[in-house]
Amino acid sequence: NNTKYIHDERGVLFEKDTSKNKIALIQYPIADGNNSYIIPTTVTTIGEKIFASCDKLESVNYPVSITTTDVYNAFENCEVLTTLNIIGTGNMQNYQSNKQQHLYYE
Questions:
Q1: How many contiguous H segments (helices) and E segments (strands) does the chain have?
Q2: DSSP secondary structure string, 27-57?
């Protein structure tokens, strides 16, 4: 019985608080075949390079509640990522990765 961590049906690993809220995104499975992911709005922290090299990930909903991360490192080598929706601040579209696999906004 693990009281600190929880995973969802896709195998995404989270740290949870005492109320079982997912508060930190610890690990996203690189082999996940889905092309989109919605980070729960209870999450405030994501791990470094959490989505790195997820070659099928095209779209991520990213809540404004996340205060601890470097968005560029989080998505390193996500070559097909084209949409990063920042939930709570509007819709930021057309993020692309350049030859160095860094995201930039068009």
A1: 1, 9
A2: E--TT---SEEE--TT--EE-TTTTTT-TT-
Q: Give the pLDDT confidence of 51-62 residue by residue, as tens digits.
A: 888 889 888 888
Tally of CB atoms within 10 A around 81: 23
Residue type, 95: Y
How does pLDDT run across 22-44, given as a tens digit for each residue? Answer: 999 999 998 888 999 999 999 99
CA distances, 32 to each of 11, 23, 68 (Å):
8, 21, 24
67-85 confidence digits (pLDDT tens): 776 565 788 888 888 787 7
Contact partners, residue 90, CB within 8 Å, separation at least 6: none
The pTM score is 0.78
Residue with tokens 């989109």: 36
Rounded to whole angstroms, the Cα distance separating 96 from 106 reads 8
Dihedral sign computed on CA atoms, order 10, 14, 17, 21:
negative
